[in-house]
Amino acid sequence: MKTTLLAGLTLALTAGAAFADGHSVVRMGTEGAYPPYNFLNDDGEVDGFERELGDELCARAELTCEWVTNEWDSIIPNLVSGNYDVIIAGMSVTDERDEVIDFSEQYTLPDPSAYMVMNDATDLTTGVIAAQAGTIQASYIASTGATLLEFATPDETVAAVKNGEADAVLADKAFLLPIAGADAELSLVEQDVLIGGGIGLGLRESDGELKAKFDAAIVSMKEDGSLNALITKWLPESGLFE
After folding, report:
1. Which pLDDT score, from 0 to 100, does residue 17 have?
2. Are 84 and 144 in contact (CB under 8 A)?
3. How many other CB atoms are found less than 10 A from the CB of residue 10?
């Protein structure tokens, strides 16, 4: 265990030094399974809101970036161990996560979550609610009287509702909205659930210079309105920066 931890820290420190010298490719880690934030298109390439945003941030920061996909449940450990350098995966900023990694300026405002059901009579306070493991939605359900049913991927949470394994799924509204719109059997509960903070890039604590570059790029996109334009395009239900 100690050897693994020391190896991870060495990788992180080495990566940070490389960025400072300007000689390294910055690896952008995402899930690739959570549209419209990030998903794989028909060509197998990362696409969506965060692909467009990440490419623009890298251009403004004058960084050479490449995209890496990673399963959600290990996305933070693999950042810390050096398998990539930035998390850009619809990750809400929370105090718990901030104890392990650092976060950039937020690039979305707090986004509403929503329940999706097949039966409007579902009791959300006592029912079985599906959520993706390691998300703010899973933590929220665990704090209520409902029974939490966790899955590794967002698609599995939706399938659990469809096959009757769960009474509802709680997830980002932007993710559930097009699914409910395309399936007459599914519907969103009218009342939104406001949990978590806005979304930011996740970085290693040791990569302060890299964080500063991305912070400056995010601020510049806020100031010139280009970030709001991307939010309007991909996340039309989300709030805009003033």
Report:
1. 40
2. no
3. 12
In the prediction, which pLDDT does 196 show? 85
User: Which residues 6+ apart lie within 8 Å of 126 measured at CB?
Assistant: 145, 146, 147
Tokens standing for 139?
Answer: 């933590």
Q: Six-digit token pair at 24?
A: 């390294």
Pairing of strands 147-151, 102-106: unpaired
List, in order, residues 6 or more apart from 23 with CB less than 8 Å away: none
Q: What is the pTM of this model?
A: 0.85
CA atoms within 13 A on the CB side of 233: 13
Sign of the alpha-carbon torsion through 136, 142, 146, 151: positive
For residue 169, give the DSSP letter.
E
- pLDDT at position 110 over 50: yes
Q: Is 186 left (phi over 0), alpha (psi -120 to 50) or beta?
A: beta
Instruction: Name the DSSP class of 198.
Output: -
Give the pLDDT band of residue 15 (cuts 50, 70, 90). very low
Q: What's the order of all strands across the beta sheet hosting 200-203? A: 65-69, 26-30, 86-87, 200-203, 102-106
CA distance 95 to 103: 10
Cα three-residue angle 30-31-33, rounded to 5 degrees: 135
Note the pLDDT of residue 24.
81
* Residue located via tokens 């403004």: 60
